[in-house]
Queue: 2 jobs
Job 1
Amino acid sequence: MNASAKTFNTIQAVNRAIDDAMEDDVNVIVLGEDVADAQEGGVMGVTKGLSTKFGASRVRSTPIAEQAIIGAAIGASLVGMRPVAEIMLMNFTTVAMDMIVNHAAKLRFMSGGQTHVPLVIRTMTGTGFGVGGQHSDYLEAWFAHVAGLKVVAPSNPADAYGLMRSCIDCEDPCLFIENMASYWTPGPMPERGTRVPIGKAAVPREGSDVTLIAHSRQVADCLAVAKQVEAEGISAEVIDLRTISPLDNATILASVEKTGRAVIVHEAVKPFGVGAEISARINEALFGKLKAPVQRIGSAFCPVPFAKPLETAFAPNTAQIAAAIHQICR
Amino acid sequence: MAESNYDPGADTLIEIYRRMALIKQNDERFRAAIKSGRLVAPYYSPRGQEAIPAALSVHLTPQDYICTIYRGIHDMLAKGVPSRLIWAEIAGRTTGTCKGKGGPMHVTHPESGVMITTGIVGSSMPIANGLALAAQIRGENRVTIANFGDGASNIGAFHESLNLASVWKLPVIFVCQNNGYAEHTRFDLGTSVAHIADRAAAYGMPGLHVDGNDPVAMWHAAGEAIARARAGQGPSLIEAVTFRFYGHILGDADAYMAKGEKSAAMEKDPVPRLRASLIERGIATEASLAAMEAAIASEVEEAEAFAFASPTPDLSELLRDVYAEELAA
């Protein structure tokens, strides 16, 4: 990675990516609840400073009206603007599903390629804050199931910067998922303008016995467990998907072909999740080469609970990842 | 009522009539093609609603945008989408506006300013705001028309959109074509107000209630709202009262309507009414209008022939236009 000695966190990374993109292209605009500085630059401060720097015309706080936010972003994008629309929390995307699924995703196809929707929808989510059943779901599988959308979920600040730049460049609608719990985790700062390609996974750790596949917050968990099992003589490779859709088949299959074992981890609930799709692809391509059944780890199949012990038990953890590795590497 | 010198001039009235006749003849031929089995497509006839887009669109330039809905060929034709491209799209041919990939509910033609056609009730409005937002940010003198029906004024998107447009003073005109029925449910059974235009007050914008079958009244209302938007004074809501002659979708049994309601409405057909008035007022002659109608008839006949002579899309189109680049299946 081409990183200087400087570090920043994901809040600063996303902020800088949008700031740089707005400097580079007057068509980049920001819409969302509380995103302007008069409203404190976003609930987590991700858009802080942008309205002061670029003006109230290009950075607009909106009413709490998700259909109106995404609709306005779609309409503007149809004529060449490049909106970065914030839907404060991933659960709130449900209020705008018609705009996202029936319109943003499909207008290129339904118009026969005459129009397209270069739109970025930023949203954050994740457990750990006791915000209960309507403020912390991971719903990436819903969006990955829709042809026409791209779905990215960075795990570190450098990727957040590079993926946000790529999403703003992208001629198709992108859903950009930020994890709340890892917002403040520092990481190396890449040079201005660095892009991380959409659709390309990273391999932050190489290994030979088992492949751990994750995105967003669970990448850090997988890296921690990989280090832990190394002491037991198990060599774990870690894949950071970075993009959910389109999925980087080549990186996943090359790794699992090498190791013969795979554990997929995500914070979304396990049934019908991204892990199911990845497991199916591995089985379709590598059935005869697997040394053990593919393992999936996801959150419990229930709404995100409030009480701390329940919330903690709901989400995947490092002990579950280690147990899955032990089960298939015996 | 405006002074007579503000009335549309003779040329404008004739142009409004031409657009209405174009819509009527296209619609008649679409219905005939579907009934005969030559054409297989879901079809939502705009017959009876011609005066609304005809009188509105003469205020627009090709640079202005419109968003319309599944019942929308009247809006498209009035905005200038060539008949043949609509025919080819509805026939699912590669020469259609959208290469046959959108179909009747998704005709799109940016060249004419038709930016989206949606099959989702209410969804023209949030997107129209975005088109207007782009024009506002860029300082362009364009307006955007959001067409929708009376049923759409009861969905959340209507309320979210009017509110946002008002807060941001967007150059958008919300045109509710109130044809009396939301699918099969009569207007008053599903709507809390007698006039949808009254809802404009809740969003701090003018609400104009107008007889949508009266081209002159419609021309005045549209002109006022469009001038306001162009002057940067923000959005307006127009409720244009009308009636759809052929039900929600072609083939409706009309059992949900009171007996005689439809025939009474058809007796007040706005197209022959304007035609008679043009002749009566000496604005046009029977011969001049007959010549105009004959020219339209050949255009529509040619459009149908063009559509059926065109190829259906190659199967390689299946995975094209999903993303900018074609992804592996």
Note: The first strand of chain B starts at residue 65 and ends at 69.
Job 2
Amino acid sequence: MADITAQLGDTAASAAVSSRLGWLKGGRFPVFLVPVLIFYALFFGYPLVRIFWQSVYGADGFTLIGFQMFVEEPAYWMVLVYTGILGLITLAITLVCGYAVAYWLVTMDKGWAVLLMAFVLIPFWSSGLVRTYAWLVILGRQGILNSALIKFGLIDTPLAFIGTNTAVVFALAYYLLPYMILSLYSVMNGIDRNLLLAARNLGASPMAAFRHVFLPLTRPGVLAGSYMVFMLGIGMYITPAMLGGPEQTTLPLMIAIQINEAMDWTFAAALSVILLLVTGSMQLMANRFLDFERLWGGAK
Amino acid sequence: MSSRFPCQNLLAAGAALALSLSAAGASAEDLTILSLGGSYQENQSRYWFKPYAQETGVNVTEAAGYNFANLRVMIQSGNVEADLVDLSADSVKALSREGLLEPIDWDSVPESCVSGIPEDMRHPYAFPTIQWAMVMAYNTETYPEGPKSWADFWDVEAFPGKRGSIGATRPPVEQAAMAVNPDPQQLYPFDIDAAFDKIAELGSNIVFSDGYAQVVQFLADGEVDMIIIPNGRMVPLIADGKPVAINWNQHLRFPNFFVIPKGAPHVEAARNFLNWVCEPERLATLAKPTNYGPINTDAYGYVDEDVAPLLPGNPATAALGRVADAEWLGEHRQDIARGWARLGVR
């Protein structure tokens, strides 16, 4: 929990940097931000600039060959589209499951909530590689799921899960679910329960109180969680690499192939920039109808 | 920049300690060798690096695990930390073309080392050591008769069952091409798009994995019945008595080399090591534990009779396959990557 709030705090800080540039117009310079700014510039800003540079500057000078290769090959567009669809489906699943779990956690007795929160956090802290391997063990042709289905006589021959969208989507949703639960939980936890009681007192049914009072108040949590899950989902490498087949090739996988196998760093950088532009434009869109400061700060 | 090889300092410390304990009064010559890690490097270390350090008193430091991309950057940036690197043929081609390798001083290599090395393997910038082979392995319980060719691998009616292969990083394009045109000597050049069409034919009969370890595991677990795999990966399964066999027909051999990167701090020390390790008897020591075949054919005089048939390039099976054309493959990496992307959206 501390982990995620720290992360949210960081983002809030950098959002504050961009929105409060008042010191440029004569305000006081925020000296305490200098170490953070230097850190970001060195380890985030510089590599990012390098990637942009590398995408347009190859061995023979300025070039747009990387972008041209992407535009000319419909298979690469489809990889991008698939990456986006995978992110959206994962988002939908984690939102539905995460909302239910987070609601359940805030409504239950605090002691139990702490214990159950541990079950959310333990997988959150364990290695993504190990957790993806676990899915291999469960979903394999001789895996736990197939063995169980055969034992109970539900199927005769093992079903193929590995190398399917089902395997990738489920493993991805499982991996990202804690992010959704945590962002929803922190917002739901800050909602004054008396508002619901007041609604009931004024004659609303339990369902109406939930829909008209609770649901709108969780909007910032829903948006923050969705945003995080989608962004992490489309950037995920291990899960589609280990559980997917050729049909589950995502843009991050394609970038890795370009770096390690095709050894075309210009194209790899161009693909990275394309992925960045897609996510960046989504952030811009989100900014248009979201108040980020309020969003990251939670409901007040 | 010493953090490029995170384990190097630790290894260096360990090696230094070991040497100060065992080889008192040794010369202070240093040699850093960068290899591929895993059980391959463990055996290299046991049969080559450590005996060399012991015999000569040279301070041998080992580093493991690099990929081509960061190796190239290391040499280009002039910040070279390795004196000797274990490299595949395609990487040798790429690096030597860019002038990033020191030449091999073939005149100084002992004659006893050179005579057994095939003419076409005497690369001006790389010293050939062992070769591995991409072969077919299968479950002998599922197929007592055994598939005999890549055409059989693609024949799902005669040989029902799942197939396994590494996917994105090395799609089985050559094997697919040989399933259509069986003569390995006529393999290159082949139509990469047609090869991917052939791969697509297998549909859900083939399972792709992210790494070779997983492909082998699939065969061991019965998850698949036939795989495309580097022969050395089958050693543990064969040793465990698992019901598996290798089909050597239409195999592809991939030689490995030692190279000296341009700007290496101890070029002389690296050359001295090469002149030591190149003896056929020493090259042969790796055969049994790794099942990688020595490229120097004289080394077969030192290989046990029961091991020789398991080695790529041994006289009995060499003619069934061929050395892969690393240069042609290197030129078509981008086409293969694109073919893989297209395979997914058919």
Note: Residues 14 and 37 of chain A are 9 Å apart (CA to CA).
